[in-house]
Amino acid sequence: MESYVTQISREDLEDLREALLAKIDIDNSGYVSDFELQDLFREVSLHLPGYQVREIAETFIAGDTNKDEKISFEEFVSIYQQLKSKKLSETFRKSISRREGVRSFGGTSKMSSEGTQHSYSDGEKVAFTNWINKSLMKDPDCRHLLPLNPDNDSLFTSVRDGILLCKIINLSQPDTIDERVINKGNITTFKMTENLVLALNSASAIGCRVVSVDVHDLMAGKPHLVLGLVWQIIKAGLFADIKLSRTEGLMNLLTDGEQLEHLMDLSPEELLLRWVNYHLRNAGTQTISNFSDDIKDSQAYFYLLDQITSNEMQEFRSNVKIDMSGLSERNLVRRAELMLQQAAKLDCRQFVSPNDVTSGNSKLNFAFVANLFNMHPGLLRANMNGSFTETQIKEETREEKTFRNWMNSLGVSPYVNHLYRDLRDGLGILQLLEKVKVAVLWKKVNNPPFPFLGGNMKKLENCNYAVQLSRDVAQFSLVGVGGENINEGSPVHTLALVWQLMRRYTIMVLSDLGDGEKIKDQIILDWVNSTLSQKRKGIRISSFKDKQISTSLPVIELIDVIAPGTVKWEMVTKVERGKLMDEDKLNNAKYTISLARKIGARVYALPDDLVEVNPKMVLTIFASLMGYGLKKVNY
Which of 6, 296, 322, 599 could form a disulfide with 306 if both were Cys (CB 3.0 to 4.6 A apart)? Predict the structure, then answer.
């Protein structure tokens, strides 16, 4: 950083020290990690947008001589002084450079959304723009935006009013957002902001990592952050059905002597690769090991298209014929174009251009293949022949999906595809413990790749450490839960631990009432009832199991108190003759969940959780609304 500074008074210095050592430095080490920097700025009344905090952290880490990625008190004072000098814009001036197919904004952000950098691919911009145009071309609410021009930056400016983001979230995961809650038409900046908050909280609820993106970023149309968020939303939809519980034909991908558990352990990306190779083997041609170098010559795609159209399960077999003559074309770009013309016969020319194929853009090629699988899997019904039973392939429960999406939205790495199997190495649990401000000594943790022999023992050691921290430091109630239970993927024991992690994360926002785990359910319940009574709402709940909650009315009335003017009462069905029909309850619940997210509550619960009065998820809804009501959350 540059040397100019503003002098700090002794009183300010003590305030800074208190903020760092008393409120942020939870393990009394005298340091804070880079991910806590925004909390620290907020404590000293420097309310900076997320993108600016990221840039500060990146600049600091780049010049960090001891490479520990921690910030001492002295280092923070130096940063604070330079911010107060009002010359931050000079320090973080961006240099824009160009290289083939990529636009750069000054380096890589380790804190950006999945798959993004401070640079972006023109190919990805074009691909996502074309997908949006095709998917929403008939949507009347998007007429003021579409069609987007893939040759300019209209994609980045189109997200400003939040409508487009809400729409693509619902394309990816239908009914995530209640359309009645979206502000539409010619709306004010305030209404745009509401839409963006709704979109970010809803994206988080379907498992997108949005902790590194805020409303300011989207309003400014920051290219790498917009592309990163759009890609995560698209990916969530593309990969939703690439699992055994959704597509029984994937059983055909089992190899001789292979156990079902191995196939169930595979990620959607790994299943896609195996699906392609299944068809390539049937075609008698060479298999592939990736969607980058191995697909550049288009040969695998030609044979894949030919196989799925010739499969006897496909209704279009008689009138769609893949022209394989393109394989004789020596120019790879022209060959890729001929291949894509064949894909167009199946309405699957999506996400890749000929150059994306020949350059081996793995992200876009994954999207191309996932879309092809979803539309035309070309798999016969699996012959179970007594080896496996349908009970072995269970659909993910609503609770499991909610927990998994919560983890992924926080950036747990690697991505959690299977709640129990993907936590068996302990690493995901340890990352979540850090998210709830439990200090993890990473020197004690075994990291991948785990050896074939003895690898499970190292995973067990991680799980034992995670349970130890959860019990001794976080003070979770874990009767009968041991590291071996997490390592074995036991649903009951894993859920017991994960629920307490999610509960602590949810109520951490209530910091003025003390440490998260010290906040009893009764405190939240009392706040709900006292807040309702102050406005003479004439409604109260006895517990988070109260049957009144099934109507969603207690939650809607609470939102009306803490965010006056937000509720459109014509959208709400009131209780008449003492009872609501199930359909009315569900409609109220959908409206309520989206409304809570729109005002800024980070809600992961689903409408069915309200209708069925799931006390765990009901607690998280009220805790999030309490955090909003007490103005302790800055989403």
Answer: 322
